[in-house]
Amino acid sequence: MRFTKNILEKAIGNKSIKIYRKYIDSSLKMEEVRTIQTESDFDSFSEKRYSDDNGKTWSDYTENKEYYKKDGEKEILEVNGNIKYNKKHNHVVKIVMQRVFLYNHHDVYEKYWDKGILNWCDYTYIKISTDNGQTFNKSYKLSYEPNVDFYSNRGYFGNNVEIDKSGNIYTAIVAPLESCCKIAKTDEKKIASNGEITSGVFVFKGVFNEKTSDYDFSFSKPIMITDLQSSRGLLEPNIILLKSGELMLECRGSNTIREGWNTRTQPNTPSYRWVSFSDDGGKTFTQPSPLTFDNSEKFYSPSSISNFLRLSSSNKLFWIGNISKNLPDGNRPRYPFYICEMNEEKKCLIKSSCMIIDDKTSDDSELIQFSNFNVYEDKLSNNIHIEYSRLGANDSLKWQGDAIKIVVTP
Asked: 140: part of which helix (H) or strand (E)?
């Protein structure tokens, strides 16, 4: 594989620039979202523009006013996730998450990290467009509980939507441990000492009903690990349809220890990627285990996002994320940044295929991170495009980060 690195936009001052592009229908039409970040897990400004010719020319930017809204004391974020075209049913499928802070997001996040108290609610939606991405006129809230109050059916969206040959759609959400244990009929205290911190996962399957022109959704039995394995449970799930027809769930773990969290996680707890498999169409999944290399070697990975991409040109499946030489401490270090081919028969990464996309240089701060990235396959060249910010590269300006694009030629 060959790599080409480009700076899409140079950051000025103490801010991180992110520029993410994605296809939004069955054609070459793309959406570009440009955001400015000056604080953790919150974009200070968001705008977007469009291209009809695979990114050669672009419309003018317009402010993305849907991203942030206020409702009294509440603050509401709406974040668009993965978009895919469903060839079988000729419509576009998009995953959207809404995060509702009960009050000022600065104070909410501070209380979470200091005390382990969660004062926000996430909800995940599947939205459908029947006019090739122009409007999304159907919306389905992914629900696993019958009640409809503010605190029910909370779910942090997964990284992707998967679509099988029959046009069935799959996605995963992170759900509160209390709800997972209730459905699994398991004692919550056997899984974790603090259910606000530790989360489980549900995998949803949507089957299109030709008679009603609607999706009927079902969800898996909850997938969980204990806080002896990961203080925060399973996070930021990917759901992948393997060549065998099995479904693979891959998640981020965490060995973060905070005084106010009261978890059973120990300082030497390994930090892994966690995988689980289903051979019954997503009804049940195996107990999660660490993702390994093809020589059965376990590897460390910080608590950071990962993603998968299957190339249409070769049908090869690639994993993109952070692999650490030594045991990480919670979210860090978020370098080096790797791309590895997946061995789908052995359900592991091919170690000899792993290549570093980006890494800390001698001029970079220890806090630099290669995370929260975007990846897609260019429809014309079939190259892999990876977009991210080199956030944290500057010791004196910790939020500064240039917008970067890596083009990988397989």
From this structure: strand 138-141
What is the tally of structural domains in the chain? Answer: 1
- Say how many C-beta atoms besides its own lie within 10 A of residue 196's C-beta: 17
394 within a domain of the structure (yes/no): yes
Report d(CA 368, CA 276) in Å as an integer. Answer: 30
Work out the pLDDT band at 272, boundaries 50, 70, 90: very high
User: Vertex 374, ends 372 and 375: CA angle to 5°?
Assistant: 140
pLDDT band at residue 28 using 50, 70 and 90 as cut-offs: very high
The closest alpha carbon to 91, from 135, 32, 143, belongs to 135
Torsion angle of the four alpha carbons 322, 327, 332, 336, in this order, in degrees rounded to the nearest 10: -30
Q: Does residue 87 belong to any structural domain of this protein? A: no
**Does residue 3 lie in a domain region?**
yes
- Domain for residue 65, yes or no? no
The helix/strand/coil state of 25 is coil
**What distance in Å separates the CA atoms of residue 196 and residue 376, rounded to the nearest whole number?**
33
% residues pLDDT > 90 (the chain): 100
Distances (CA, A) of 323 to 229, 253, 304, 312, 338: 18, 13, 10, 26, 7
DSSP per-residue codes, 329-344 = BTTB-B--EEEEEEET
Strand duo 348-349 + 337-343: pairing: antiparallel
Peptide bond into 290 cis (omega under 30): no
Q: How many helices (H) and strands (E) does the chain have?
A: 3, 27
Q: How far apart are CA 343 and CA 318, in angstroms?
A: 9
Domain that holds residue 35: 1-57+291-410
What's at 407, amino acid-wise?
V
Residue 271, phi then psi, degrees to nearest 5: -110, 105
Q: Model pTM greater than 0.90?
A: yes
Residue 277 phi, psi (nearest 5):
-135, 150
Q: Which of 63, 109, 19, 4 is nearest to 401 (CA)?
A: 19
How many angstroms separate the CA atoms of 325 and 204, rounded?
35
Position 40, amino acid: S
Q: In terms of C-beta density within 10 A (0-12 exposed, 13-18 middle, 19 or more buried), how is residue 347 classed? A: middle
The answer to whether 285 and 220 are in contact (CB under 8 A) is yes
Number of neighbours of residue 300 by Cβ within 10 angstroms: 17
DSSP character at residue 142? -
SS3 for 359? Answer: coil
